[in-house]
Amino acid sequence: MTSTPSSGAAVDQLAALVRQLPPSCGPVRLVAVDGHAGSGKSTFAGRLAEALGGAPVLHLDDLATHEEFFGWTRRLRLQVLDPLGRGETARYDPYDWELRRFGAPRALEPAPVVLVEGVGAGRRALRPALALVIWMEFDAADSWVRGRHRDGRGLSAFWDDWTEAEIRHFAEDPSRPFADALVRQVPEGYEWLPGPSATARTTHSLTERDDLTPPP
Fold first, then answer.
1. Does some domain include residue 136?
2. Is 150 exposed, middle or buried (0-12, 13-18, 19+ CB in 10 A)?
3. In which band, very low, low, confident or very high, does the pLDDT at 71 lie, cut at 50, 70 and 90?
4. pLDDT value at position 157?
5. Does 1 fall in a domain?
6. What mean pLDDT is predicted for residues 17-34?
7. Burial track 3-33 (b if 16+ CB lie within 10 A, e otherwise)
8. Beta-strand relationship, 90-92 and 57-59
């Protein structure tokens, strides 16, 4: 009689891969979770962080603003990447979307793995500091519908502006072609396979019910 695989095997397998990667930003393995708004990045990043023993997650919504949906690169580098690259605690100013201003500084320790979650996390300017780029494989239009439903009609005008900005961003600076792993939601949880950038890696299509050993 075979044993039942533990729930979350796909996420655990990807976490095992992350642990094997060399540091990419000082002592930190910086992992990007990118995809369209509404594609499930935050939920997946939370699951992966848990599988990594409580790895910290930086949400790019804390760095973007109403005026600069994608103009946070310099702020991220100065407040987060540079300190982590020196092995120091980073301190960034999270943006309050209701008050429309930055709040008190928040600390981010140079943990062995730090996840950066948000639209554009795998952008060109960040990739030299990233150990892995994960792309949530979810259709753009379906993602936006899900995001609009989540946020309600009160943010309809915001979503109109956002989708236009996101289309422009990915047209100028796409992330998916540089993804190391593509993650899909399936009825059992998640599955993943190597992305366009993972040319030397064998294919792994894993669901939460698979009983597989970690990648070599």
1. yes
2. exposed
3. very high
4. 83
5. no
6. 97
7. eeeeebbbbbbbbebbeeeebbbbebbbbbb
8. unpaired
Within 13 Å of residue 32, how many CA atoms lie on the same side as its CB? 28
What was the pLDDT predicted at 176? 96
What is the average per-residue pLDDT within 84-95?
Answer: 97
Nearest to 147 by CA among 52, 10, 41: 41
How many structural domains is the chain composed of?
1
In-domain check, residue 206: no
Tokens for 156, please give them.
């309809």
Domain membership of residue 216 (yes or no) is: no
Q: Which domain holds residue 165?
A: 9-194
Q: Within 13 A of 202's CA, how many CA atoms are on the CB side?
A: 4
Residue 5 has pLDDT above 80, yes or no: no
Tell me the average pLDDT across 142-170. Answer: 83
Cα 212 to its chain centre, rounded Å, is: 24
Give the pTM. Answer: 0.86
Confidence of residue 197 (pLDDT cuts 50, 70, 90): confident
CATH number of domain containing 112:
3.40.50.300
Three-state secondary structure call for residue 52: coil
String of DSSP letters for 138-163: --HHHHHHHHHHHH-GGGHHHHHHHH
74 in Cβ contact with 63 (< 8 Å)? no
Q: How many residues does the chain have?
A: 216
CA dist., res. 97 & res. 184, Å (int): 29
Q: Is the pLDDT of residue 208 over 70?
A: no
